[in-house]
Automatic annotation (TrEMBL), chain A:
Keyword Transmembrane helix assigned: yes
Keywords for this protein: Apoptosis, Endoplasmic reticulum, Membrane, Transmembrane, Transmembrane helix
Taxonomic lineage: Eukaryota, Viridiplantae, Streptophyta, Embryophyta, Tracheophyta
Organism (species): Hevea brasiliensis (Para rubber tree)
Protein name (database record): Dolichyl-diphosphooligosaccharide--protein glycosyltransferase subunit DAD1
Entry similarity comment: Belongs to the DAD/OST2 family.
Subcellular location: Endoplasmic reticulum membrane
Principal location class: endoplasmic reticulum
Quaternary structure annotation from Swiss-Prot or TrEMBL: Component of the oligosaccharyltransferase (OST) complex.
Segments passing through the bilayer: 32-50, 56-76, 96-114
């Protein structure tokens, strides 16, 4: 039972890896950026757990800026992905411009809230 | 060959004409929304109404005089003496900043409007904007025809008029516009999947958070809708784009507003949005994995993840539940809890229960406030289901939740109004289109002509059914002539409708006379609605309540301007630093108009302070004098309606003073003031009632007016008629005895002999025990 589940797990892992290798490079770059942002957020949470949460607004703005850029990058990835039928007539430049605008608003708010 | 070109030109011309017509209709709707709210300016004068708007007016005056940095950091020491109030951190700044900006823009253009004028007319202007926002929202849900109808309905709906007449300078004036606009942007993002609209949505949500505490409705309704979409299998990537940036950006922007601050992440009102944020990420991830794996592998992944993930999930949920359960209110604020459990406030927080706006509405008030819309709403709900889209499911959810909340608090009828207008607009527009379609079909059937000059989808399909040979030609002409109402339906029809669909469409056609009659009836319905709305705006909702009018028996108009008379007397005849004590209802008006420091006001943030004033009003003269003296009070103000029959005076509110005071100081017991459970002020009243400060200050010298002391509101003669005041002296009573101002007598310089014994024997026991109880437990010594 355990052997079959571990074999299943391995087969699953291999199929995941092969499927992911087929994605285009631009999407992989976006995925890397998302991973980096989430990693930064996790580091900040660990730091807060060690040092304490004062000043709370700085902690909140730091974590939420990382989470925010991750979310926006995922939105960009959705809009740029060629396999997505819903967005096939959206030019990728427009998607990127929207991404930049939203990031600008997000970081303006962050700068104000950082204290 | 010329025919299709001419047809195309005719189409674009009709299209352009339709656009221009709808632009003018929208303009007229805006003008209507503005003008219908001006009744109070015409009947009375351009004055600010009620109580809360006076506070907002005072804050706006400060903002325009001192600029925005001083406004953010303002600490107000003229209210809640001796505590003061941090205005910058406890007020929702949206309304004052909006009015201040409008005033500043107009003044820099050299249009010298006063601050008061700008404040009075802010609400009608924003209601015009709100009706345009309703047009946009309904257009996204159903189409432009429904949009115009909904906008026209919202411009006039009495429930919205009641909180946005000219002069009602309160948060809801701009908040309803922000609410509708935020919902419009959310639906637009959901329909288009554009990140640009998602950004705009977050900014509109920020404006809503700035304006009103009701923003928690948005941040709970949108996650509910997202959850509904996920559960009903309508998850799409547009849903993710509509929701996820809103949560992150919205939480940050909400935390920027000082009133909300860290509550944006720590109170239970926002937890729903975080929970759904996590859920939508899980769902998105699952869909992504499903997309890149083969079905067999996906099944394996599911079993693996479920077995491992379930354990982790349970652990996290246990921690979360333990955290939330550890706080006594489970993290919710008092007001939100009273919304979820309507009996909560009356049990635990008498202040919230005592506000008349927080009572549940009666059935007739639904008909008064939304009139005809009350039975158009179910028709609209059904119309939303044919066909069901993300946007229409959102509107259905909105109306259902707002109906529930409006049943809890009469103040929230205001949130129901836009939803009811949207639904009714959809219902009216759909029914009109069914009837006109039937009429057109019948007309063409009568004339026998196969030429279709309407562009309506069903008539074209019916004609095509009649003559299969001409089917393609009519479908082509139908394609070339989009009318603004049936654009969406046409796209479905042109792709080769099946025979079954044609038969079903045929069944939607009604007889000719019935359709004409039905259209006439619908127009009549609209006419009744308009008549009711204008009547409600003119008679019911335009009273400024600081000026009262009544008609004397010879038909003349009699004006009661006692409130402003009293405040003017205070501002001219007292020192600038004198403190005035009254019940909290009049606090805002006193600071704004009389410019004196008050002890408690309408903000009601400190229950103990209010209970102190309530205790003082319920105690006998000496105890009350001591309480007021400890608060440095110089003048006491009471409102008395017994001479003219004004029912909202302090004697009618007195039991609430007893309850609130008794909630903090246990020596005040409500049964002491009731005779056999009945509240009376005549000769059968209890001695405690006849000796309390409120009775004495209200009825001092009242017997001099008509010899008998007949109270017109309570409809009895008063119990104690001839008495003197020992610790207070009357300094001013207004023309109709509605406002009475008393001054605290200074303490005597010498006391002859030993300490005075209590004066009258029959109240000695109660006063002595009360006094000793008061001195023993007096927390100010």
């Amino acid at each position: 039972m355990a052997r079959s589940t571990s074999k299943d797990a391995q087969a699953l892992f291999n199929s995941l890896r092969s499927a992911y290798a087929a994605t285009p490079t631009s999407l992989k770059i976006i995925d890397l950026y998302v991973g980096f942002a989430v990693f930064t957020a996790l580091i900040q949470v660990v730091y807060m757990a060690i040092v304490g949460s004062f000043p709370f607004n700085s902690f909140l703005s730091g974590v939420l800026s990382c989470v925010g850029t991750a979310v926006l990058a995922v939105c960009l990835r959705i809009q740029v992905n060629k396999e997505n039928k819903e967005f096939k007539d959206l030019p990728p430049e427009r998607a990127f411009a929207d991404f930049v605008l939203c990031n600008l608003v997000l970081h303006l708010v962050i700068m104000n809230f950082l204290g | 060959m010329a025919d299709p070109e001419n047809a195309k030109e005719a189409t674009t011309l009709r299209y352009a004409f339709g656009n221009v017509l709808s632009f003018f209709i929208l303009l007229l709707i805006g003008v209507l929304a503005f003008w219908i709210r001006l009744f109070s300016v015409i009947k009375y004068e351009s004055v600010i109404h009620e109580f809360d708007p006076y506070f907002n007016y005072r804050v706006t005056q400060f903002l325009t005089k001192n600029g925005i940095y001083d406004f953010w950091n303002w600490f107000d020491d003229r209210t809640w003496y001796p505590l003061g109030r941090v205005i910058g951190g406890t007020v929702y700044p949206g309304l004052t900043l909006t009015a201040g900006t409008i005033w500043w823009i107009l003044n820099s253009l050299n249009i010298p409007l006063s601050v008061e004028t700008v404040c009075v007319f802010t609400a009608p202007i924003f209601s015009a904007f709100a009706s345009w926002a309703t047009y946009l929202l309904t257009k996204e849900v159903k189409g432009a025809g429904a949009g115009l109808t909904a906008a026209a309905l919202l411009a006039m709906v009495p429930s919205y008029i009641s909180r946005s007449v000219a002069g009602s300078y309160d948060n809801e004036a701009v908040a309803i516009f922000a609410l509708i606009f935020t919902f419009y942007l959310y639906i637009k993002t959901l329909n288009t999947g554009s990140l640009f609209y998602a950004t705009l949505n977050a900014l509109a949500y920020f404006y809503m958070v700035c304006s009103w505490g009701g923003y928690t409705f948005i941040i709970n309704l949108i996650p509910m809708h997202v959850l509904l979409c996920i559960v009903t299998g309508r998850y799409s990537s547009r849903l993710y784009i509509a929701y996820a940036p809103l949560v992150v950006l919205g939480t940050l922007l909400a935390a920027l507003v000082p009133v909300v601050g860290f509550n944006a992440v720590m109170t239970s009102e926002h937890f729903a949005s975080f929970l759904v944020f996590i859920i939508i990420h899980v769902v998105a991830f699952v869909y992504y994995i499903k997309g890149i794996l083969s079905p067999k592998m996906f099944k394996v992944a599911v079993t693996l993840v479920v077995s491992v993930g379930l354990v982790v999930c349970c652990a996290v949920m246990a921690i979360l539940i333990a955290l939330v359960a550890s706080s006594p209110t489970k993290g919710w604020s008092g007001r939100s809890l009273s919304l979820l459990d309507p009996t909560y406030a009356s049990k635990y927080i008498p202040i919230i229960a005592s506000v008349s706006e927080h009572q549940p509405p009666t059935w007739p008030s639904y008909f008064m406030d939304i009139n005809v819309l009350a039975f158009l709403v179910p028709a609209g709900i059904i119309a939303c289901f044919l066909p069901l889209s993300d946007a229409s499911s959102f509107v259905v959810l909105y109306i259902v939740t707002s109906v529930y909340f409006s049943g809890v608090m009469v103040r929230l009828m205001l949130v129901l109004a836009p939803a009811a207008c949207v639904m009714s607009g959809i219902a009216l527009s759909e029914s009109f289109s069914v009837f006109t379609r039937s009429i057109k079909f019948q007309l063409h059937g009568l004339s026998g002509s196969s030429q279709v000059d309407s562009g309506d989808a069903s008539s074209s399909t019916v004609v095509a059914q009649n003559d299969a040979g001409k089917a393609e030609k009519t479908e082509d002409t139908a394609k070339e002539r989009p009318s603004k109402k049936s654009k969406k339906k046409e796209k479905g029809i042109v792709d080769k409708p099946s025979l079954k669909a044609k038969i079903e469409r045929r069944l939607l056609v009604l007889p000719f006379e019935a359709s004409i009659f039905a259209i006439l009836l619908l127009v009549l319905l609209g006419a009744f609605y308009v008549v009711h709305c204008v009547w409600a705006a003119a008679e019911a909702y335009s009273a400024p309540s600081i000026v009262l009018t009544s008609y004397s028996h010879d038909g003349g108009l009699h004006v009661f301007d006692d409130f402003r008379e009293a405040y003017a007397w205070l501002s001219h005849n007292t020192e600038v630093d004198d403190k005035v004590a009254s019940w909290w209802d009049y606090g805002y008006q006193t600071t704004a108009m009389a410019n004196r420091t008050v002890i408690v006001d309408n903000n009601t943030w400190n229950n103990t302070h209010i209970a102190t004033v309530g205790t003082a009003m319920s105690s006998p003269e000496k105890a009350a004098w001591e309480i007021f003296n400890s608060l440095d009070v110089k003048y006491v103000l009471v409102v008395f309606g017994g001479l003219v029959g004004y029912p909202s005076d302090d004697i009618n509110k007195f039991l609430w003073m007893v309850r609130i005071g008794g909630g903090v100081f246990p020596h005040i017991k409500e049964p002491d003031y009731l005779r056999d459970g009945q509240y009376r002020i005549d000769s059968q009243a209890t001695p405690t009632m006849l000796n309390c400060l409120m009775y004495k200050l209200s009825y001092y010298r009242f017997v001099e007016t008509d010899g008998r002391g007949f109270d017109r509101v309570r409809q009895t003669e008063i119990g104690k008629k001839n008495f003197k005041l020992t610790h207070f002296e009357e300094v001013f009573t207004t023309h109709h005895w509605m406002v009475r101002i008393y001054k605290l007598k200074p303490p005597r310089n010498r006391i002859r002999g030993k300490t005075k014994k209590p004066r009258s024997q029959k109240t000695s026991s109660t006063t002595r025990t009360k006094r000793s109880a008061a001195t023993k437990r007096n927390p100010w010594h």
